[in-house]
Amino acid sequence: MFRNPAHLGAGATLALAILLPAVRPVFAQSAAEYVPGEVLVAFREDAGFFRKEAVLEDLGARVVASRPVLGYEKLELPAGRSVEATVRALESDPDVAWAEPNWIYHPAAIPMPQDPLLVDLPAASNQWGLFLTNLSSMWKAGGGGDPSVVIAIVDSGVDSFASPHADIAPNVRNGAGEGRDFIDGDFDPTDSGGGPGYGHGTAAAGIAAAIADTSGMVGMAYRSKLAFVRVLDCNLPGCTGTNDQIAQGIAWAADSGSADVINLSLAGPNYAQAMRNAILFAIGKDAIVVAASGNDSSSTLPYPANYPEIITVGANDSGGSVPTFSNSGANLDVVAPGVDVWAPDAGGTHAAVSGTSFAAPLVSGVAALLRARNPGITQLETKEWLKKHTIDTLDPARDGAGMVFYQTSADWGDHASFPPVVHKNSMWEWLGPHVTGEISDTDATDSDGTPNVDPGDAQAKDFGDDSIFPVNNGSPP
Q1: Which of 115, 155, 244, 317 is the catalytic position?
Q2: Helices of type H across 83-199
């Protein structure tokens, strides 16, 4: 889409040709889908200074921001200059690698700890999804992850950076310079606006990493830390952010934010090279990047979900069906609970929320648990792990590899289509050296059918059949 593949290198051109679906016409969307008067452009490396200046002078444009890490610049156009005409002119210039509008994106949402909401009652106001997927059993191996693992929520910010929602506050990194706001250009990613979409980032964060205690709910990786990056402005209708803001947010999260996992619960219809550059930069920094599939009832994925490098997550409901709103497509990897799931809200309480925006952070939490047990796990390995640990929904044509499902050894006889790969229990293969797979369901040690751990290792304990709820706020005894 507003890129010249010949200027991206042979390898990049091949990847685009093989992995990406056909791109829709450039300006099929209305003008409201991009920022008027702005264009993002990347010049070829061999384009000299004077040539660049001549191109800009011909267009009457000026550089208002440079993004050297991501390899592009943001241009401001003179009043009355068409974005469409400018992009087409740049695209045809041999000194330009790619050019694109500053596209606008929106939230991808529809407006065992002892936590009381952690109960298995589908359709009630609780966390049924952790039981339907059996993901709560992951806590048997190592509790809720590790505080050294950081999940970046690149979204609308947090309800209050100085004083976050009580269910996430202990896990929020909110020291000086530990959050970033690319809407207001400062280091305070506090959500604002109050309209539809307000609180979106807070909800996503809670699903990923709300603390384990005796109130409220619990997040999948309840010992991980949360870094907030504000790239969606809920003062605007629809809670929107631009391609440039989101790209900067992703790059900051991977670099200055030291994120292990980056959650992108946002979507837009247009391919954006700037954003893809940021995602590739983040993966190159060893971050695991997860995105929501979007809620357009479409068989075509939006972006960033449609970039093949991303781990793309759709939604399923408590009955095992994929809701009509959940987008599908060739690059959809898995689905996860995303209909009437419980999450913290910006008012300090909790609410049931729906959308692929809230399926993605559950998978981001799983990725954080995997990273805690195996710091070397990569984006591709995490993607493959997730796709191997699934079961079919009632809509297999729209669920990617299936619903994420954490299988114990007892499940292998029932799910013959998901054979173990490395161990007899392949879902433990990335959980580190402390765990070994059991050969069968009849185990002389505890007969629980789950892997054993080294009894002398204080970092890992087998909670066996006692409980799925670790003690001491998730720390193994």
Answers
A1: 155
A2: 83-91, 129-132, 139-142
